[in-house]
Write a structure and sequence with these properties.
Helix content: 10-25%
Order of helices and strands: EHEEHEEEEEEEEHEEEH
Distance between the termini: 65 Å
Number of helices: 4
Mean pLDDT: 75
Low-confidence stretches: 8-32, 36-49, 206-217
Shape: elongated
Oligomer: single chain
Strand order of the largest sheet: 2-3-7-5-4
Strand content: 25-35%
Amino acid sequence: MSPSTDFSHSAIPKAVRGKKRKAHDDEESSSSLTKRRLDRPLTPSSTSDALDESPFYKETYSLFLPLSPICYNHPLQGLCAEHLSPLILSYHIPFHGVVISYENTKLSAESPQDLKSEIPSPVLARSVDEYAASFVWLTADFLLFRPRKNDVMEGWINLQNEGNLGLVYLNFFNVSIERKRLPKSWRWVPGGMNPRVARKSDKQSYYRGEDKQTNGDDAGAGYFVNEGGEKVDGLVRFKVVQVETSRSSGRENSFFDIEGTMLSEEEEKELGEQNIIGSFRF
């Protein structure tokens, strides 16, 4: 083993965007985790108590990472740019969530769980045989988006078709609600019929003097209307049914999809029983 590399401990801003992260299996196998829930949810104060359970978590991870020789002058910044910043707004399988941000980055020669006192200075990186990169422990606090089943959320409608309602949560995450999980009082209006229905929350069109009830834009695409005959639009509350994730090939981000429902617990239970009965039919 060659001599260790001397690094002094320094601070860094939250996220330094830089080089793309190289695939490295040691990052997953050598990580240690401590969890702590946020003190209060990151949801608007105007929402009801049903939305108080936040899907955001703040957790501390320690990763044993390779440090490229080009980053020896600025090791902390180099590790963040190469390994942490590329994870932002992507689903990271070892963390079981989407990385929103990170902060409080620290270097150490040993795993923080093995240290009995504060991190010594300077920090020594480990060099193994003829391997070009040195290895060092990097610890950071990560803000993760991790929705779970039965979490209540609100999303904006951005897609409607006869079999599906598409939403956007926090202007980034896509949510899909199947037709069978929409309220039974809703009905589908095919494109081209152009009925005189009221459009919710369209103040801008009203002040511009546009008549949405007779506008030809509604004639092209179909949409749902509620029990009052109003076109379904704007903000919709839903409950998470399941979250699907899968590992992607290469350096692409992992697949992340949220499936929701607008049914009550009794209706959802009845739907589940119908699916079970239907699966036994030949």
